[in-house]
Amino acid sequence: MSGINDIEGFHRKILNSIWIGVWAVDRNENITFFNKGMEYIFRTSGDRVLGTNVLQYIKEQSMRDQKHFCELFCRVKRTLKPAPYDSLSMITRNGSLTYQSGVLVPLIDDMGNYDGMVGTVEDITERKLIEKQTLDYLKTEKELENIYKSSPVIAFLWLAGDNRPVEYVSDNIHQFGYIPEDFTSGKMDYSDMIYPDDLGPLMFHIRKHEAEGNDYFSQQYRILTKKGNVRWVSERSLIVRDENDVPAYHQGIVVDITVQKRSHEALLEAEKKYRLIFENSPLGIFDFDKEGIVRHCNDSLIKILGLPKEEIIGFNLMTSLRDEKMKAAFESVLSKNSGYYEGEYRSTTVDKTTPIRACYSPNISEAGSIVGGIGIIEDITERKKAEEALKEYTQELARANEELKSLDRMKDEFLSNVSHELNTPIVSIKGYSTLVCDGTLGDINDKQKDALMVVLRNTQRLIHVVNSLLYISMIQTGSLECRFEDVSISDIIDNVTDDMMPLIRQKGLSLQKDIPADLPSVRGDREKLALLFTDLLDNAIKFNDPDGQIILEAEEERQEGKEEQGTIHIRITDTGIGIPEELIPKIFQRFYQVDSSAKRKYGGTGLGLYVSKSIVDEHKGRIWIESEKDAGTTVHVMLPEA
User: What is the C-alpha separation between 202 and 221, in angstroms, rounded?
Assistant: First the structure.
């Protein structure tokens, strides 16, 4: 037994002598061995640990990856296969972060069952920190390299000489199309890249600073890229001297400032343009500071105000303005708003009053504070004269319009009187002609009868024209009155067609009527409705072709399933010349005719459809037309039932 104990003691001595941590647990996970290396790593005594449950001990050590360790421990216990682990982090008792790696080896009894666990622990914190520092250094170096490569700054080392030979240039010279070897190989001097017109002034500037003993110099000049494009650069360099105080080389940087240079040139150009506008504007322009004191003005303002420039510059708008409205307009600027004024300016030097319009605008800094403002004064003398002339012209137009209205009323009254005067003899002519024609006043021969028929037809047409004129004159004078009653549409249409039959027969037209006798009545004016259908039938006759056809239809219409008021739908169709589609919307206008030659070919006044629509509107109905050129026309009339 003593031999065995000696061997066990020897092994324990060896395990306690190495600085790798070694620990062991029994099958119940209680720690049975904890060597000196473990004591050093965990900063604790083995006596305090022995007998402790290893998984509970791991939790007490604040191991960051304790879940991973416990899962690994259980897997080794279950599979009975060793497993390594690496870079487990743990917080020591003194609060330090450590990293550990090791191996878990299962102990197996003679029956092949789990009998405990042996583990090794190595503190790799220092290695881990070195790795992290190395990675951080590499990352920083990479970031610096990226910054350097993307930097617009090009580093140079030039030898002091007329052509400035290049000893060193940074890689980002590629932004001008070159590579460092173009210069460092001696193929090119720096002067080869400088724009020819700028080489002389640059070298003069350098020599001047060298001669004056300056340590630094800076200059802006142009260079040529490898493709021959011109770019602006800014150079700032250190003049390095040898032991004899003679310039040996220049060490400096070059930055591409083309964008800034062009922006500056554009700004100068804009400033020049705005100065030209300021100086040559017909408007008086001035600016003032936040105290309201005028700082600059153009010549136009001097001319408008009639004051010398020295009296305008320094004028205090805040304290010296006397016109309250003008002062209120200026004070709007102090509230960061624009101000407007229009009135008369009275010169203090000459006896002159000038109508002006003033506009004040605030000048606001980036911080949002008022730093002053701009004033614009306009001489509106000519505008005022134009307004007065326009006012007088408007008044003259108003007087002329009243005279025209008076003439129009006189015309309407004359038309009404003439129409009434014509109506009486026409009725007499028609009546007596009818008596003679039908033999009431004695027998007449066939030629006499034919002549009287011509008289009757033209009398009827004349009556129709007079009635239309009477109707329009009543509309114009506001004296139109309708006598509404329940009337039969079929009776009215029958009477109209009877009166128009002589004209229908004369032109050789056929008339077809499809009008039920039992149509419901409409609420209407009998005379107006007779005039309506006379006008429509007259058009159907007038614009029809010889031997053409006229169709009169009427029917009652109601919306199915509704008890609303019904309507009578009347259609008058002819087979005549028709109307172009684009002209249909215009044909209800007064005196409108589709063709200016229509008056000569067909006659008429252009009043028929205008009168027709007016009558339909008075009866709360609708009228519209469907037509096709050279194919005929259908006029639709919808009238509400009584």
Answer: 7
φ, ψ dihedrals at 97, nearest 5°: -90, 125
Q: 255 and 152 in contact (C-beta within 8 Å)?
A: yes
Terminal C-alpha separation, the chain:
138
Three-state SS letters, 229-256? CEEEEEEEEEEEECCCCCEEEEEEEEEE
User: What structural domains does the chain harbor?
Assistant: 2-129 (3.30.450.20), 151-262 (3.30.450.20), 282-379 (3.30.450.20), 380-481 (1.10.287), 485-640 (3.30.565.10)
Degrees to nearest 5, angle at CA 384 with 379 and 387: 145
Q: Is the pTM of this model over 0.70?
A: no
Cβ atoms of residues 292 and 330 within 8 Å: yes
Give Cα 435 distance to the centre of its chain. Answer: 81
Q: Point out the residues of the chain with pLDDT beneath 50.
A: 1-5, 7, 596-600
The answer to whether 250 touches 214, Cβ cutoff 8 Å, is no
Q: Which run of H or E residues covers position 630? A: none
Q: What is the DSSP letter of 591?
A: T
Point out which residues pair with 189 in neighbouring strands.
none
DSSP state of 507: T
Strand partners, 287: 296, 374
Phi then psi for residue 203, to 5 deg, are -65, -35
Quick: pLDDT tens for 340-391: 999 888 766 666 788 889 999 999 888 888 889 999 999 888 888 888 888 8
What does the alpha-carbon distance between residue 284 and residue 306 come to, in Å, rounded to a whole number? Answer: 11
Record the tokens describing residue 445, joined without a space. Answer: 């021969």
The model's pLDDT over 427-446, given as tens digits with 9 standing for 90+, comes to 777 777 777 777 777 788 87
Helices and strands counted in the chain (H then E)? 19, 22
CB 523 within 8 A of CB 548: no
**Angle in degrees, CA 635, 639, 640, rounded to 5:** 160
- Token digits of residue 88: 């487990």
